[in-house]
Amino acid sequence: MQQTHDIRPSKLLIMEGMLMSLAFVLPFSEALVSIITVLIFAFSWLIISPKEKYQSFRKTPLPLFPAGIFILYLLWTTGTHHPANAIDEIRRNVFWLLIPVAVAYLPLSRKQIDRILYALALGVIISSLVALIRWQFSESIGITDIRDTTLNPHIGHSLLVNFSLFFLLLEIFRYREDSWNMRQISQLAGVLFLLIFDFWLHSLLGLLTLFATFIALSFFTYREIPKRLRKYVWAGAVVLIIIPLALIGRELYRQFHTSMPQPAQVAKFTSNGNPYQNDFSKTLRENGHFIYLSICLPELQKEWNKRSSLKFSDKDANGFPVKSTLIRYLTSKGLTKDSAGVAQLSNDDIRAIREGFANCRYVPERMNLSARIYQTIWELDAYRSNGNPNNKSLVQRWAYTRAALSIIAEHPFVGVGTGNEKAAFNEMLSRQNPKLRPANFSHAHNQYLNYLVTFGIVGFAILMFLLIYPLFRVGKLSVLTVLFLLTIGIANLGDDNLQTHTIRTFFALFYTLLVFGFANSAKEPAGNFVSNNNHQ
């Protein structure tokens, strides 16, 4: 699909280096991403003149289809009620235009594209190592959540990790006829490190995307999988489905396997003879233990104030009452909420409560993937119990989804327009969720719903056409290209990834390189819709 241009090798080499630099800094810095993208756009006109680009466009317009998304944002500013927001949206989405125009008609070879992909993988590995180092010094730099260790938002970083993992894995198979060498060993080490890091990061969306992408790929490549191997492929797909279900099932059982005891089964007095408060009408739990049983506030206050300079009536580091954090923490350890329970807490436990950790499993040193799943289950149970959606990630996402669907229903055809999205969500959320604090207002964490809110059915159909139509015109896609599209396509169901600068740039860059840059590469069969590319 690319046009051939007479370009001096030195200029093309410089452009390759700039593209490698852009790929490398994606997981590091949005500012560097912007600067390098603008430099690439400016330098591209020195490589291919405007006249040559126009001629290429007339012959093969498909590579510039993604640039049409920027035009869509421009057109939908008509009638905007918030010009400042509209200008900001235009500024942020100009990269849909800059990257395809700069990259689309470059005569890059497969080896050159591979080097750009390796630069991305190297940047992701180094930035992930930086995240691990930051976690080792988390206390001194004020990080309490593993997901805050990445230099970019953790969901976006997990998508870069997933794609880099897929690329390195495919590179190993591209050399499958060779004996193992340092190159393949390095690639395998990169795959294993990124896979371990994916689990360590506790990004549930990133892991679910990783599993779902592998499962979906087995469908795309089914006809080309040898019959003798199909049972193993499907067995692997089943395992990938079972793993998250098993983890979720285990946490559900641990939380809900006990039933509320009868009043006669619960102690009425502490060991000091003071009466307990027992509320049998409230079923909220911590690690399967009921929060509102066996509470003696006078003993809690007296014993806590002996052990902490942060008093019982104060607020913890997260702004919640120490009293409620202490009660939840004691419950999570299966301790009574009295002087005896507080006496059994270690100094590390006291510090964790002061820092706002309401469950012993949430403490950074103990936090793992199972605890992250449990945290989500607890948030849902707490919302069911008290109806408060604030600071509950999944519950708030549902509120945003409901608001988005309502906005779409009110503006079905052309949406609310560029720049009006924030006001539309704020108005709808305040109407539908009076308990949700304005500080927690946001847009839908679903890219497709956000596009429907902004552009309506008409604009959304145009946008999808701009991205999907070229895929059917370039011929069979490489396995890597399909993995790339599946990774972003699936992840966009759980977050608005293309609203972030890093992932928007990542998608525009590698959509252009993989879909159109691989178009003239030699291929080997690998499925009806995919093909693998021979090493050149």
UniProtKB/TrEMBL annotation:
InterPro entries: O-antigen_ligase-rel_domated (IPR007016), WaaL-like (IPR051533)
UniProt superkingdom: Bacteria
Pfam family, one: Wzy_C
Membrane topology qualifier: Multi-pass membrane protein
Keyword Transmembrane listed: yes
PANTHER family: LIPOPOLYSACCHARIDE BIOSYNTHESIS PROTEIN PA4999-RELATED (PTHR37422:SF13), TEICHURONIC ACID BIOSYNTHESIS PROTEIN TUAE (PTHR37422)
Signal found in the keyword field: no
Domain O-antigen ligase-related, chain residue ranges per copy: 388-463
Keywords assigned by UniProt, alphabetized: Membrane, Transmembrane, Transmembrane helix
Lineage of producing organism: Bacteria, Pseudomonadati, Bacteroidota, Bacteroidia, Marinilabiliales
Compartments in which it is found: Membrane
Chain ranges passing through the membrane: 20-48, 60-78, 90-108, 115-135, 155-175, 187-220, 232-253, 448-471, 477-494, 506-522
Protein name, UniProt field: O-antigen ligase-related domain-containing protein
Organism: Prolixibacter denitrificans
